[in-house]
Structures are given as C-alpha cells and as structure tokens.
Amino acid sequence: MYNPKSLRAVDFIDHQEILDTLDYAAKNKTNKELIRQILDKAKQLKGLNHREASVLLACEIPALNEEIFHLAEQIKKDFYGNRIVLFAPLYLSNYCVNGCVYCPYHLKNKHMPRIKLTQKQIREEVIALQDMGHKRLAIETGEDPVHNPIEYILDSIKTIYSIKHKNGAIRRVNVNIAATTVENYRKLKDAGIGTYILFQETYNRKSYEKLHPTGPKHDYTWHAEAMDRAMLGGIDDVGLGVLFGLESYRYEFAALLMHAEHLEATFGVGPHTISFPRIKKADDIDPSAFDNGIDDDIFSKIIACVRISTPYTGMIVSTRESQACRERIIRYGISQISGASRTSVGGYTQTQRPHDSEQFDVSDQRTLDEVVCWLLKMGYIPSFCTACYRAGRTGDRFMALCKSRQILNCCHPNALMTLKEFLLDYGSFETREVGERVIQEQLQQIENEAVKNATVCYLSKIDAGQRDFHF
Ligand code: SF4
Ligand code: SF4
Fold first, then answer.
1. Ligand 2: centre distance to CA 222 (Å)
2. pLDDT tens digits for 168-214?
3. Residue 5 placed within a domain
4. Are residues 54 and 95 in the same domain?
C-alpha cells in the first residue's frame, strides 16, 4: 500500500501506485484543462507530485509541451541563474563483487584489469585533478568488502582533503559507494563528505533483480532503503538517480519522484541532487542489448519535467553525454556537470585516456579549460563553489534557504570568486579573457550593495594571491 512516510521501500516505491500513475497520465495526455491546471500550479514554484509530473511527461499537445520547456527554463533561471557547478569523478577501485549486467566492473568480467589505488596513487590523481582546476570530486568504487572496506574509503577521503598542491585544494568530496549500514554512513558523515550519491539504477523490482543477478546489490530493499539509513546516520545531503535505458522511462520517472517525496515526507528534506545517466557503451557492455533506450528528445523532456517538479534539487549530467546534448539540456534544468572526466581507475595520471578499464565511454572528452570556455561563451558562469557544506548549510537548513531563494545571494558571488581563482591559476589566455569580461558584467547583477562591495574586495584579494573566500 502506497505510503510515502513509511520506512519500507515496498510502501514508498509502491509498484501499484506507479502503474496507477502511468495509467492516469496516459488517460490525461491530451487533457488540456488538467495539463493547464498543473502548469499553473508549477508556476508557483513549489514543485509537483509524481502524478502531476507524470501527466506533464505524457502530454501530447505540442503547444503545451512548448510551455513545459519554457517553464523549466524559467524555473532554472529563477533558482540557479546562469551558474553551472563543475566537478569530476575520481575512481578509487574497480574491484566489485556484484553482477550488474550493464557495468563492465561486474565480477564475471575476467579480462577487466582490476586496480585499487594506494594512498600515494590517490595523492597523484588528486594533484592531477587540482592542476586542472577541480575543487569538487565525486569518489567512486565498486562494492567489495575485502578490497574496498569502509576504512579504505575513509582513509582516501582524509588523503584527498589533506592535499594542498600549489593553489589547489579539493574542498568537497561527494561519495558514490555501495549501499551500507547506518554505522558506516555515520563514519562518512564524520569524515566530512558532501553529498552521498547512490543510483537506484531501476526502481522496478523485477527488472532490478534480473539486472543484478548476483552479489549484495541483488537485494532491492537494502538498496532502495539506503538513503533512509544514510539520513539516519546523519548525512542530510543525498543524491538520487536511475540509469535511463534499463526500464521504461515513465516508470522510472514516477518512481524517482516518489523516492524524493518519501525523503521529504520522512526527513523533511528532499534529495540534494538528482543525476541523469543514460546507459552507454563500455567494455563487454552493448547498450543496444537494453531495449528501453531513450533519445535526446525524451531525455530533454524528462529533464524539463523534473526541473518543474523539484525546483530546489540540483540536477547533474556527466560526460556520458556529448557536448551537443549537454548544451541542450543545461537550458532545461541541469545545474551541475562533470568536466574532463576519466572513468577508469588511475586515469588522470595517464598521458593518454586509458580505455581498457573505463566504466563507460566518455562522450565529452574536452579539457576542463575547454569546458569552462564553452560555458562562458554560452553565457553561463562556470562555478567551482563548495561553500554550503563548509558553512554548515546542509539538509533542511540548505533547503530552507533554497526555497526562499536567499541562497542566490551566496551562489552568485561565490561563482564569480571561484571562477576568478580558476582563471588566474589554470585558465588559458582565451578563457581568461572571456572570463574576466563575464566577471565584470556579472558583478553588476549583484543587487545587494554590501555583498557587491565585499565581492569586489575579495576579487582584488584573489588577484593579489589570496584564495578561498566565500559567502
Ligand atoms: S555498477 Fe557498481 S556495483 Fe555494479 S558492477 Fe559496476 S561497480 Fe559494481
Ligand atoms: S553557495 Fe551553496 S548552493 Fe550555491 S553554488 Fe555554492 S555550494 Fe552550491
């Protein structure tokens, strides 16, 4: 029985509720009056529930679909302005005991070289990332209690935060590791992580069990209830996601929003982020073997509908997507992207991109400087801001600031100051030229005089060699 407040996955991701939602959406896909009512509600910027959102996703009236995209664009501007936060994944180990059929790190892949970075190698990888200009990482490992125990993850986080190379520093480590216990989540919290990210892959229990035939990840309930345990362990910023292409996208869409509603109903805080990976080619993985692939049009519509439904949630897309696709979907809601990613263990210290141990093929292979320059030329402000969790703005505190849009008073100047650091320390001549111009223009957009003056003051201190100012 559907109950968003229950702590049991079987209740908050209720299969029948999803089927009923899809049925309701299909029946109303041309119901102009209802769709208009939902759009009017969405314009109040308080979000939509999974049923309303599913109707928008199903909408088949071209003029209203245009309105959906237009509204998503507007909400993106209202909540996130023109800033895009940048990060990189850091793969620590690809040892894995699971059997996920869509991932080349599955246990049965015997020709995949297995690598686990030592703390010395992590240091080298982090220095390579710092030398590009990265400040925010997402660490990734396979699930393997022998090779990748929680102590290894904790040591690695400590190592990463401790490295200060030239003007570089990793200021926020997000963690994407297997579902674990409340006790381990508490340890991660104490280690100072940013967001805990875990993709459900698919919310459809039957498909999930087939796609995860062996290993601890086979347990749907353990996996789907992981965010509750993370919250109970004190982690209040969690990141959701599904791997689009595994199951029907309409099913995943409704369930993803139900999961978000559950977190909000139970802990008073919705997800900090939602990620949007689509299945991609990799060693021994052929995406055409999965028959639920979605094209760029549907992908864009999903992004737009999630943006409208959860205005306060950060939305992430990785380098799985091409430059052209990223260009399109950033408009409709994406607020964070990865740049210059290497998806193999130890990849950042190799001169050539290694392909034999990649988790997936990287579509957007540009350097970080190229990505920054591209964003600037499109009118966005690339941001390396990590201020919130360092200033204690997490969980419900963060959400309250986000909902009242007061957070914008921090995001905008922080974006300009971190961009300035990037330009001075890592930017090419061209990027620096475009970036400096954008900073001067965007300073004028800061309405609060005191904040504007303080930003000008900090920018000149950054010019003089100081680093790490934030609001
Ligand atoms: S998706 Fe994660 S758990 Fe599954 S095989 Fe890949 S690394 Fe292991
Ligand atoms: S101020 Fe907070 S919400 Fe805004 S970009 Fe920085 S970390 Fe993100």
1. 31
2. 999 999 999 999 999 999 999 999 999 999 999 999 999 999 999 99
3. no
4. no
349 close to 390: Cβ distance less than 8 angstroms: no
Expressed as residue numbers, the domain containing 42 is 17-76
Q: Which residues pair with 274 in a beta bridge?
A: 240, 315
Q: Residue 140 Cα, ligand 1 centroid: separation in angstroms?
A: 10
In the numeric block, the tokens 């141990």 are attached to 357
Categorize the per-residue pLDDT at 309 as very low, low, confident or very high, splitting at 50, 70 and 90.
Answer: very high
Lowest-pLDDT choice from 15-29, 122-136, 327-341, 387-401: 387-401
**Can you name the residues that pair with 238 across neighbouring β-strands?**
196
What is the length of the chain? 471
**Is 135 buried (19+), middle (13-18) or exposed (0-12) by CB count in 10 A?**
buried
Alpha helix positions (H), 225-269: 226-232, 249-267
Q: Which ligand is closest to the CA of 386, given by its number? A: 2
Number of domains in the chain: 3
pTM of the model: 0.97
* Residue nearest to ligand 2 atom 5, measured at CA: 411
User: Which pLDDT tens digit goes with each residue over 47-66?
Assistant: 999 999 999 999 999 999 99
Determine the distance separating the centroid of ligand 1 and the alpha carbon of 144, expressed in angstroms: 10
Q: What is the full DSSP assignment across 98-132?
A: ---TT-TTSTT-TTSPP-B--HHHHHHHHHHHHHH
Minimum-distance ligand to the CA of 401?
2
- Clarify whether residues 63 and 111 are in a common domain: no
